[in-house]
Design a protein that fits this description.
Order of helices and strands: HHHHHEHHEEEEEHEE
Radius of gyration: 23 Å
Low-confidence stretches: 1-24
Number of domains: 2
Number of helices: 8
Length: 342
């Protein structure tokens, strides 16, 4: 028996052993109502769907992110200082929300809350570790222990709240808005006599990709990652005047990131030797900047929505930070108020 098959069998035995015997009456299979006890048809459907989606996603991501780049033997590298740590924030964000979504799926199948919380933790770690293994075989990246640390941080944030409070009082969210770049041409600083040129828009498109998926998942100049805190959940019952859905959010973003470190890059990342076009931005005109935000937010899961379908949709999209006024402070010392920030 293969290792993946052993893992699936172990998970199945854990699920079967963690639920009480099924009652005489259970929710219909296609109902969104979570089962109180183990619902075997839902369990098998969840396992089958999860296996197919996981496998298809890994194949699609590998073809999209890795097939066009050279590979080498498995190796690690230290990228903690790259991208102003915005990539680490992305790992934290996704590991947390994957845990949350997998927990909801386990509860739908009738798995007990505590076991579901651990399954959400384990499932998100499996997904994020798989991506990190892909990085480990890429010649231009590598297996990152700091990425693994932020993956663990995200999943642990979910698990600790679910086991300790039975609810999520601190949620990880994201927001993004397209960035407009200057259209002036940029010329290589070397080699001498090169007739090449580019623009910041071309550089950003080549680096981050285009379209809404790339905007939210890869564009570190556009992405803001938020920790959204529900104050009422930490206050006594007498604080009933405070809306239960109102959150306070602290966010982190970045600007002028066109290379992992520094300000210089090769026009063709696969080019080797002295004849490669090298570009460099002026750090005074385009300083790499960390942005910190303070804003209000809405926890969609606390709106008291009665319709179960809409409540499920709200739980899925609760990863998105609601547009609201925001105060921005940068590591360059600037302060700015945004009447509406997303």
């Amino acid at each position: 028996m293969s290792f993946p098959a052993i893992c699936r069998l172990a998970v199945l035995l854990l699920l079967l052993g963690s639920a009480a015997p099924a009652p005489a009456q259970q929710p219909r299979f296609f109902s969104l109502q979570p089962a109180d006890t183990l619902h075997k048809p839902r369990l098998w459907a969840a396992l089958g769907t999860g296996t197919v989606v996981y496998g298809a996603a890994m194949v699609a991501l590998h073809r999209s992110w890795y097939d066009n780049y050279p590979t080498r033997n498995f190796h690690s590298f230290n990228d903690l200082g790259e991208w102003n740590q915005m990539d680490k924030m992305g790992h934290w964000l996704m590991a947390y929300n994957e845990s949350r979504w997998l927990y909801a799926g386990s509860r739908w199948a009738g798995i007990r809350p505590r076991t579901s919380a651990w399954l959400g933790f384990a499932g998100s770690q499996l997904i994020m570790t798989s991506l990190e293994v892909f990085d480990g075989f890429s010649a231009q990246w590598g297996f990152s222990w700091s990425d693994m640390g932020f993956n663990l941080l995200g999943s642990s944030l979910f698990l600790s709240q679910q086991l300790g409070w039975g609810e999520q009082r601190i949620t990880m969210k994201m927001s993004a808005w397209p960035v407009s770049y200057p259209s002036e041409p940029i010329y290589p600083v070397s080699p001498a006599g090169s007739d090449g040129s580019t623009t910041l828009q071309q550089r950003a498109d080549a680096l981050y990709g285009t379209g809404p998926v790339s905007l939210f998942l890869k564009n570190y100049n556009a992405l803001t990652v938020w920790a959204s805190v529900n104050p009422r959940a930490f206050l006594p019952e007498r604080a009933g005047w405070l809306p239960r859905w109102l959150n306070v959010a602290v966010g982190m973003g970045a600007d002028n990131l066109f290379v992992g470190r520094g300000y210089a890059w090769k026009g063709n990342r696969n080019c080797e030797g002295p004849d490669c076009d090298m570009y460099r931005l002026d750090p005074v005109e385009y300083p790499r900047t960390r942005q910190f935000f303070l804003s209000l937010d809405v926890d969609l899961t606390r709106l008291g929505i009665r319709n179960r379908f809409l409540r499920t949709v709200a739980g899925v999209v609760n990863i998105i930070k609601i547009p609201a006024p925001a105060l921005e402070i940068t590591d360059r010392g600037s302060v700015r108020f945004h009447p509406l920030y997303f």
